[in-house]
Amino acid sequence: MTASEPVSVVLVGAGNRADVYSRVSLTHPDKLKIVGVVDPDPVRRGIMAERYRVPDEFCFESVGDFISRPKFADAAINGTMDSLHVKTSIPILDAGYDLLLEKPFAVNEGEMNALLDAAARTRRRVVVCHVLRYTDFYRAIRDHVDSGILGDIITIEMCEHVNYHHLAVSYVRGKWRSEALCGAPMLLAKSCHDIDIMLWLLRGDAPLYVSSFGGDYRFGAERKPAGAGTRCLCDCPLEEECIFSSRANYLDAVRWTQYVWKPLEGAGEPTYEDKVRSLMTDNQYGRCVWDFDRGGNVDRQSVMIRFSSGALGTFSMIGGSAKSERNIHIVGTKGELKGTFEDSRYVIRTMSPHTKAGFCERAYDLSVGGDMIGASGGHGGGDEHLVLDFVDYIRGGSPSVSCATLADSMMSHKTVFRAEQARRSNSVLPIDPAKEEIP
Ligand SMILES: NC(=O)c1ccc[n+]([C@@H]2O[C@H](COP(=O)([O-])OP(=O)(O)OC[C@H]3O[C@@H](n4cnc5c(N)ncnc54)[C@H](O)[C@@H]3O)[C@@H](O)[C@H]2O)c1
After folding, report:
1. How many other C-beta atoms can be found within 10 angstroms of the C-beta atom of residue 137?
2. Which of 123, 194, 315, 367 has the most other CB atoms within 10 Å of its CB?
3. In this structure, which residue's CA is closest to atom 1 in ligand 1?
4. Which strands sit side by side in the sheet containing 98-101, from one edge to the other?
5. Which domains does the chain show, CATH number per domain?
6. For residue 267, what pLDDT is reported?
7. What is the pLDDT of residue 375?
8. At a CB cut-off of 8 Å and minimum separation 6, what does 238 contact?
9. How many other C-beta atoms are found inside a 10 Å radius of the C-beta of residue 374?
């Protein structure tokens, strides 16, 4: 690859996320070119091959088939589901490819260590898709922290509200509903981004101890409303008043199409009647939300972390709110920062004893988009920035401040693993049991 050539990439797991990243090849053909597709699903493979003009000979059913070819690309984008990340990534690294890998990069500590070893052994570059680091909002906050305007950080409070229809589509009816299904509990699947942001903003301050509480407040058979049916469109007398109604959320509103209409992929644009039939028969998104086995997964969870500097971090994932929103409030020895990602706004207040209010406040308003997972421009522009940064890195550039290398992402994953363990055991746990004793 020369500096003037695009980085050539093979898509592994031709699903939603890989597609979002690959679209950069259409907007920036000088930077990225998709030259191969791997997916056992022939429909998905075909859609991606057509969209990115990949010849048949570079379309593969499995990673094994892909790597049996002599190396023909610079890197791979691994957009498989959570529990496949490590299993599919190790052979790709062994075959000599650098990697852009979806989060969570591993679903347990054993897997995490296996991937770290493989990356070290093969000396390949692996970047984890922590897209929030690339948004204007969190980048600007990181710059303020770096500037020292807040002083030393004492506390960092973060909250992610996952609205009720997102909660239902992904974590109740959807493919992340249980650890048994996707390998990841909700904190790891949804909020490893947020814990990563907390650690990234604390710039190397090591997390020492963690505690966590959470559970399932709303779902499960025992909470099913009396008289509710099994499929919203078939047999439920409560459908019209239910906030989780498939009709309201997936037919009347155009939401989460990439998940809900997957069963209809490959047969052209589905009609309204096709969709109704699908929801009435074999589409999981047509089933009553209370009928799913979530295997003990949470719908809300709080995490508290003590850092080596003495700073405290608190994070709450609150599923089921009306509106999705990420809030942050950092308090330092010289000032504080408080903001909301979706509003693209934050304020910085600095201590000022000689003023009437006792502080000076400055408001910042960034014009970035919201945290919607869409086909393009998702995560407030973070998706595209991440891919372009990956391209620079693969071309030999130094990792940017936002770049999450495997080593960089390791501590946030470890913190999430330990938080989940702490929740399940109602305990306070050291992040690294080998090094720390609980005082
Ligand atoms: N960075 C983010 O903000 C963000 C947002 C959403 C999802 N994700 C993560 O992205 C990943 C993908 O999510 P998605 O919604 O795009 O999933 P998806 O189900 O749409 O895509 C996964 C694809 O992998 C294919 N696949 C299955 N087994 C395979 C194998 N052995 N080899 C190759 N391909 C295989 C499937 O057929 C499917 O097409 C998940 O880990 C998810 O947690 C990240």
Report:
1. 25
2. 315
3. 129
4. 59-60, 32-38, 7-12, 75-78, 98-101, 126-128
5. 7-124 (3.40.50.720), 133-217+299-377+405-430 (3.30.360.10), 221-291 (no CATH)
6. 82
7. 34
8. 225, 227, 228, 229
9. 14
Helix or strand (DSSP H, E) at 145: helix 136-147
Reply yes or no: is the peptide bond before residue 104 cis, omega within 30 of 0.
yes
CA torsion, ordered 345, 341, 128, 374, to nearest 10 deg: -120
Tokens of 331: 């308090």
Token pair belonging to 60:
């593969």
State the closest ligand 1 atom to the C-alpha of 14, by its place in the atom list counted from 1: 39
pLDDT number for residue 436: 54
Integer Cα distance of 54 and 92 in angstroms: 19
- Cβ(182) to ligand 1 under 6 A? no
**The Cα angle at residue 168 between residues 167 and 172, in degrees rounded to 5:** 100
Question: In the prediction, which pLDDT does 380 show?
Answer: 72
Q: What angle do CA 206, 210, 212 make, to 5 degrees?
A: 150
CA of residue 188 to ligand 1 center, whole Å: 15
Which numbered atom of ligand 1 lies nearest the CA of 193?
3
Q: Which of 246, 106, 77 shows the shortest CA–CA distance to 174?
A: 246
User: What gap in Å lies between CA 193 and CA 383, rounded to an integer?
Assistant: 13
Residue 135 and residue 199 in contact, taking contact as beta carbons nearer than 8 Å:
no
pLDDT < 70 regions, the chain = 1, 368-378, 433-439
pLDDT of residue 439: 46
What angle do helix axes 85-94 and 109-122 make, rounded to 10 degrees?
10
Distance (Å, whole) CA 49 – CA 223: 45
Give pLDDT tens digits for 70-82.
999 999 999 999 9
Output the pLDDT for position 377: 52
- In the reported structure, the alpha carbon of residue 161 is separated from the centroid of ligand 1 by a whole-number distance in angstroms of 23
Atom 23 of ligand 1: nearest residue by CA position: 13
Give pLDDT, residue 437: 52
Please give the Cα distance from 66 to 55 (Å, whole number). Answer: 13
pLDDT at residue number 435? 64
Task: Determine the Cα–Cα distance for residues 72 and 54; give it in Å rounded to an integer.
Answer: 13
Nearest to 383 by CA among 371, 398, 395: 371
Grouping H, G, I as helix, E, B as strand and the rest as coil, residue 90 is helix
156 membership: H or E segment, kind and range: strand 153-163
| Residues facing residue 33 across a β-bridge | 8
